[in-house]
Sequence to fold (387 residues):
Amino acid sequence: MALADDIPPISPLAMTRQQFVDACAQQGVGSGRAKDAYHKVYKEGITHAQPARITIPEIVNRLDEPTTEGITTKFVQRFPNPNHRLIDKGIDFDDIESVIIPMKGRSGRKTHTLCVSSQVGCAMGCGFCETAQMGLIRSLSAEEIVGQWWAARHIEGVHIDNIVFMGMGEPLDNLDEVFRAIECLTDQSGPGMAMSSITISTVGRVDGLRRIKEQVQTHGWRKLGLALSLNAPNDEIRNALMPVNRKWTMQELQDILLELREVRGGRKIMIEYVLIPGVNNDREHAAQVAEWMRPFMKGQIAAGKQRGHGGLLNVIPYNPRRDSPWPAPTEEQVEEFVGWLMKHGLFVNRRRTKGRSTMSACGQLGTAEIRKRKFVPLTTNQQTDAD
Ligand code: SAH
Fold:
C-alpha cells in the first residue's frame, strides 16, 4: 500500500465520506487513513490532512450588521474564474456572497442560518432583485457551494443550524450541483446537516420542481425543505415582475406544488411574498393570494397543524435594490397587508428585514463591481425566459 504522503492530494470538498474513501482507495490509501483525513477537514477545519487537501477561496470582504437577534454577517469569497472567455476580457475572479443570519427561536435559543449562493448572478431577471441586475455570470460547482459552508463554519467560526439556498442565483438553474452539494452537506461524517434543515428556494421553475419531486422520493431526501418565491397575486402582475411566470403560470405552479406536498408526506412548502408598495399590496391582492393558497391550507388544517405551527406564507418587506423604482413598504402597509391575509384565514409569518444597510438582505446580493459585468448565456439548455 502506498504511503499517503507520496500521493497527490485529493480534495474531499463536496464528496461524501464514502466517495472520498473510494477515491483514496484508487490511490492505494487505506480507508482508516481516508476517514481520518475526512474528519479533520470537516470536523476540525483543517485544510491539509494528507491525502486530503481543500482550497477554500479567500474571504475578501466581510460586513457585520447588528440586528435585534444578533449580528448578521455577509462575507464575500473570491473564486478564480474558470471561464477563459471572461479571463480574456480581464475578468479573472468571481465574488460570491453568503450571509450568516442569527435567529432567536421560540425557546429563546439562538440559531444561525447560512444563506448560500448557487450562482454568480442570476438569469431569472426578476425586476425587484439586485442580483438579477447582474445577469448570470456562471453557476457554482458543488465544491464552491460546500466551500461557503466550510468558510462559515471554520473561518467565521459559526455553528450553522440551517442552510437556505436564498443567496445569489436560482438553485433550480443549477440543480445537479445543488443536489451534489446537499449530498455532502448532509453526510454525518462531514458537515452533518439534517436534510430537514436545508431549504431550496425557487422562482418556480416547474421543470426543476418535477426533478425535485423525483429526488425527494429517494432515500434520505424526503425532508428537504422547499420554498417558493410567489411574490404576486395573479399572473398579470407575476408576469411583469418575474419573467419565469411567462413560461409556467401560477396554476401550473400550484399543481406541481400540490404534487410535491403529496410525495413529501404533507410537509409544508414555504411561500415567500415580497411586499412592494403600489405593486402587490392591495386588499384585492391579499384576497387573490388567499385564493391561490387555499388548497395548501386544506391539508394543513386536516393535519391538525394550524396556528403555532409556523406560517405558510412569509411576507418579506421589499428591500429596495439599487436604483429601485419602488420604495420599501412602511410598517403600516406591512401590518395592513398581513392583517388582510389573516382575515382570509392564512397563516402568515412576517419576515423581519435584516442586513439592509450592508446590502445583505433578501434580494440585495450582488456587488456594484460585478454588477457591471456582462451576461453569459444560460448554463442549462432549457429555456427559462418567455418564449
Ligand atoms: N432564486 C431563488 C433564490 C433566491 S432567494 C428564489 O427566487 O427563490 C431570494 C429571496 O429574496 C426570494 O424569495 C426573492 O423573492 C426575495 N427577494 C428578491 N429581491 C428582494 C428584494 N429586493 N427585497 C426583498 N426580498 C427580495
